[in-house]
Design brief:
CATH architecture of the largest domain: 3-Layer(aba) Sandwich
Strand content: 5-15%
Strand order of the largest sheet: 3-2-1-4-5-6
Number of helices: 10
Helix content: 40-55%
Order of helices and strands: EHHHHHEHEHEHEHEH
Largest sheet: 6 strands, parallel
Mean pLDDT: 89
Radius of gyration: 20 Å
Number of strands: 6
CATH class of the largest domain: Alpha Beta
CATH topology of the largest domain: Rossmann fold
Length: 260
C-alpha cells in the first residue's frame, strides 16, 4: 500500500453490526447455549449468568467486572465443545451485519486495503468473528485480563490502536474510523475521517467535540455509495499527504516540518 493510503479501523457493535453483540452473547449463554453439557451443568451456568445480570441491573456490578465474569463463564461453558458455541454466536450476529460495509471489508480481506477491527467486545468471540469477516488484525477486550483492567473502549482503544499502528510502521498514515458511538471520541480525535453509523443527535455532538475531523454520515449509503465514498477518501487523503512532505500525524493533520 502507498504510504499516504489510509488505514481503515472498524468498530464492531453498532457499526459493522447494526446491534450490540454484548446482550446477544449474554443471552446465548443464559439460555442454555452449551448444548454439549449435561442439563444440570447448563442450568448452573444459566442461573449464574442470570444472577450476574440481576446484580448488574441493580447497580451493584460495574460493566467491566460484569463482562469479566461473563467471559469466565463463557470459557467454562465452551470448554471442549470444539468451537460450536462461538460458531452459533457468529451466525446470530452476522444476521445483523450492515450490507453497505460488506464490500469495504472485502477490500481488506483481499489485501487491497489495510484495516483492522477495534472493538470493546470480548476477544472470546470478537477475534474469531473479525477473522470470519476477513479482518486478520483484531483488537478486542482481552480474554485473559484482570477484573480491574479496562475493557477495550475509549482511551484504552485509542492507545492500543496507536500502538498497533506504530508496530506496523503506519504512524504516518491517516486513519479512517468506522464508528457509531461517542465513547470512542479519543480515537476519533486521532482520525482523519470518521465514517459515522450512529444517530443524528450523537453525530452533532461528535462533530462539536472533534472539530477538525471530517465526519461522513454513512448509515443510509448503499454498498456502491460506500465504495465510491471510500475511493474518494483514499484519493483525497493521498493528495493531501503529497502536499505535505512531513506527512500525517496520528491526528490526521500534516506535521510541522522539522527542517531548520
Amino acid at each position: 500500500m502507498r504510504d499516504g493510503d489510509p488505514v481503515l479501523v472498524f468498530d464492531l457493535d453498532g457499526t459493522v453490526l447494526r446491534v450490540n453483540s454484548f446482550p446477544v452473547w449474554v443471552m446465548l449463554l443464559a439460555c442454555g447455549g452449551p448444548r454439549h453439557l449435561t442439563l444440570a451443568q447448563r442450568a448452573s451456568i444459566s442461573l449464574r449468568v442470570q444472577r450476574l445480570v440481576l446484580t448488574r441491573k441493580l447497580g451493584g456490578l460495574p460493566h467491566g467486572v460484569f463482562m469479566h465474569a461473563v467471559q469466565a463463564l463463557w470459557r467454562e461453558a465452551a470448554a471442549g465443545d470444539g468451537g460450536t458455541m462461538t460458531s452459533r454466536l457468529h451466525v446470530l450476529l452476522l444476521r445483523h451485519m450492515r450490507p453497505n460495509l460488506a464490500p469495504v471489508l472485502k477490500l481488506v480481506a483481499e489485501d487491497r486495503a489495510d484495516g483492522l477491527l477495534a472493538t470493546a467486545a470480548a476477544g472470546d468471540y470478537a477475534e474469531s468473528l473479525g477473522h470470519r469477516l476477513g479482518l486478520q488484525d483484531v483488537i478486542a477486550t482481552q480474554v485473559d485480563r484482570r477484573p480491574d483492567e479496562p475493557i477495550n473502549n475509549g482511551a484504552c482503544k485509542r492507545d492500543r490502536v496507536l500502538a498497533f499502528l506504530d508496530q506496523r510502521g503506519w504512524t504516518e498514515r491517516p486513519i479512517v474510523f468506522f464508528n457509531d458511538d461517542l465513547a470512542d471520541l479519543p480515537l476519533m480525535l486521532k482520525s482523519r475521517v470518521v465514517c459515522w453509523f450512529g444517530g443524528r443527535h450523537a453525530l452533532r455532538r461528535a462533530r462539536e467535540a472533534a472539530q477538525g475531523v471530517r465526519f461522513i454520515d454513512c448509515r443510509r449509503f448503499t454498498p456502491g455509495e460506500m465504495i465510491a465514498t471510500l475511493a474518494h477518501l483514499r484519493q483525497s487523503v493521498a493528495i493531501e499527504g503529497m502536499a505535505s512532505p512531513a506527512g500525517y500525524g496520528y491526528a490526521g493533520t500534516p506535521r510541522a516540518s522539522t527542517a531548520s
